[in-house]
Amino acid sequence: MAKFSPTEAVFTGFRFARERPAALLIWSAYYLVVLAVALFALFNLAGDKLAQLAALQRSGASDPGPALAIMDEIAPALGFAVLLLTVFGAVLRTAVLRAYLEPGIHPWGGLRFSGDELRVLGAYAFLMLSLFCGVTTVSLFTGLAAQVNPALAALVMIVGLAALAGLAVRLSLAPVVAYTEKRISLRRSWELTKGGFWRLLGAYVLLAAVAGVILVVMLVLFSALMGVAATASGGGIADVGLALRRQYEGLNPILIGLDVVLNVVQVWLSVVFLAAGLGVGVGAYRAFASQLPRV
């Protein structure tokens, strides 16, 4: 099998993002707009219910019934917002794959809507459907085990989560297959990852670890800056908590500005991590496909 190094794959993805600042800026702006539209749709459709849910959480009510009832009412709006993120997110993912797999200059960072985007969207839809079925199955068996023994339920859940993680890794190349081979085939991803599962899993774990460290450092840095701004204006640490929860009324404008910048940086980092993750998939596909031709 061709060489696939988890470490090299992860850091190649980060280098890819660093070497394309203009495309990264376009992708981040696009993703920010998509998030804004999805949130606008969510709050426009279920803003009152979300406010009621937040009020219940602040009240510390012990009865989960009212909260569950509100969540049931919010579900359609939340589903619509997720649908928007999925559809327009596929356009972003396809643009990143296009930059990886078709070197050259792409107007608007490669963002467009064509057959490639539809195939990548279809691959993600089948991937998510497979994982949803897996989650449902694990939940069902965990519930049945809980009726027998709590320890058995815990064991079933652990085994089920491990199986779901394995399933996600084995199917993770489906979007790359959809773009390169012009077909939607979860089976192809399953075949490609058969001999390289552990290396691919290691790459995703390493990527998650690096992303986690970067996010923690960023949050600590911004929290410190916001703490300084709050103290300088005569406030306290409680003001930082209010800003992070988007409760801006009466807060120092500098504190509000830092929270806005933090959110923009988080969007930018999300796109960086997305590009790095897709880079892992592209590297794995190139390595594994060289030993397993198309059929």
Overview of the molecule:
The protein is mainly α. The chain has one domain. Helix content is about 80%, strand content about 0%. It has ten helices and no strands. It has helices at about 5-20, 20-60, 65-100, 115-145, 150-170, 175-180, 185-190, 195-230, 235-245, 255-290. The radius of gyration is 22 Å and the shape is globular. The two termini are about 15 Å apart.
Q: Which key phrases capture this entry?
A:
295 residues; mainly alpha
The main sheet comes to: none
- The low-confidence parts are none
Q: What string gives the helices and strands in order?
A: HHHHHHHHHH
The radius of gyration is 22 Å
Number of spatially distinct domains? 1
Which class of secondary structure composition applies to the elements? mainly alpha
Mean pLDDT: 86
Number of strands: 0
Helix content: over 70%
Task: Note the total helix count.
Answer: 10
Give the overall shape: globular
Spatial separation of the terminal alpha carbons: 17 Å
Q: How much of the sequence is in beta strands?
A: under 5%
